[in-house]
Specification:
- Helix 3 packs parallel to helix 4 and helix 4 (about 105-135) packs parallel to helix 5.
- This protein is of the alpha/beta class and about 270 residues long.
- Strands 3-2-1-4-5-6-7 form a seven-stranded parallel beta sheet, sandwiched between helices.
- About 50% of the residues lie in helices and about 10% in strands.
- The protein is built from ten helices and seven strands.
- The protein has one domain: Rossmann fold, CATH 3.40.50.720.
C-alpha cells in the first residue's frame, strides 16, 4: 500500500542499487511515486524493481547505466522523453570515493569521480529543471555529505570538495526556484551503514569508529524525503551531526584546517 503526494508522479533515483539510494527509492515508492531506477548493477536494480512493485503497487522502470560516461545523463533523459515519462522528482544519489593520496591516484579515476559526483547530477538537474518549472512541480534531492561541511582532510581528496559543491549548488538552486513549485534540498548524512566503505576498501577502519556516529540508511532516506517535501535547503540527519557541523562553523578557518589534519592523523593510525 502507498500513501502521500506521489500518486501519478515519477521519481528518478541514481545509484539505486544499494544503500541510501535503494532506501530513497523505497521511501518515494511508499509515498506513491512510480520509480525509475538507474545504477550499474542491473541485477540489483531488477530485484529492487520487483520489490517495489510488489510491496508498494507502483510502476518501475530499470535503466542500467554508468554515470562515469559523459554521454549517460543525456541518454537517460532522452530514453525517458522518448517513452513519454516525465520526471517529477530527481534524486541525485550516485557516488563513491577514491581513497589514497591525490598524487598516488590516476587521473582517470579522479576524472570519472568528478563526472559521477559533480557533472552528472548538475547535468541531470539542468535537463529536467525546465519541464519541472513549467509544470510547477518538482522535487530535487542531492545526496551530499557532512564531509562537504567539514574542513578538508588527507585521502579521498576530492570527496569533500565535490560534496561542498553539491551543497552550494542546492542552496543556490533552492533560492532560484522559490515560488515555482520546485523544491531543492541537499541531504548531508554522516557515517551511514551501507556498502560505501566496502567499495572504498576502508571498512576495517570504519568499523573502529564509535557506534554513536553511525546512521541507518532508512533514517537518512526518510530525513531526505521529509526535507525536500518541506522545501528545506539543507538536511543533516542526526543530532550528533547537527552539533558537530554547528561547532565546526564557529571555528576560525585555520583552526578548522588543523582539525582536518588531526582527523587525518587519527584515521591513519587506525589503518
Amino acid at each position: 500500500m502507498t500513501s502521500g503526494e506521489g500518486r501519478g508522479r515519477t521519481a528518478l533515483v541514481t545509484g539505486a542499487s544499494a544503500g541510501i539510494g535503494a532506501e530513497l527509492a523505497r521511501v518515494f515508492a511508499a509515498r506513491g511515486f512510480d520509480i525509475v531506477l538507474t545504477a550499474r548493477r542491473a541485477d540489483r536494480l531488477f530485484a529492487l524493481s520487483r520489490e517495489l512493485e510488489t510491496n508498494c503497487g507502483v510502476r518501475t522502470k530499470v535503466l542500467p547505466a554508468d554515470l562515469a560516461l559523459p554521454e549517460t545523463p543525456k541518454n537517460l533523459i532522452g530514453t525517458l522523453e522518448g517513452e513519454g515519462i516525465a520526471i517529477d522528482a530527481l534524486i541525485n544519489n550516485a557516488g563513491y570515493a577514491v581513497p589514497g593520496l591525490y598524487r598516488a591516484t590516476s587521473w582517470d579515476s579522479q576524472r570519472d569521480f568528478l563526472q559521477v559526483l559533480v557533472t552528472a547530477p548538475c547535468e541531470l538537474t539542468h535537463r529536467l529543471l525546465p519541464s519541472m518549472t513549467q509544470r510547477a512541480y518538482g522535487r530535487i534531492l542531492n545526496v551530499a555529505s557532512v564531509a562537504g561541511l567539514m574542513p578538508g582532510s588527507a585521502s579521498h581528496t576530492l570527496y569533500g570538495g565535490a560534496k561542498a559543491l553539491l551543497i552550494k549548488f542546492s542552496q543556490s538552486l533552492h533560492s532560484e526556484q522559490k515560488g515555482t513549485g520546485v523544491h531543492v534540498t541537499a541531504l548531508c548524512p554522516g557515517f551511514t551503514y551501507s556498502e560505501f566503505h566496502d567499495v572504498t576498501g576502508t571498512r576495517e577502519v570504519m568499523n573502529r569508529m564509535p557506534k554513536l556516529l553511525w546512521l541507518s540508511p532508512e533514517r537518512v532516506a526518510w530525513a531526505g524525503y521529509e526535507a525536500v517535501m518541506k522545501n528545506r535547503p539543507l538536511s543533516i540527519p542526526g543530532a550528533q551531526y547537527k552539533a558537530i557541523t554547528a561547532l565546526v562553523r564557529l571555528l576560525p578557518l585555520n583552526a578548522g584546517h588543523r582539525l582536518g589534519e588531526a582527523r587525518s592523523r587519527i584515521l591513519a593510525r587506525r589503518k
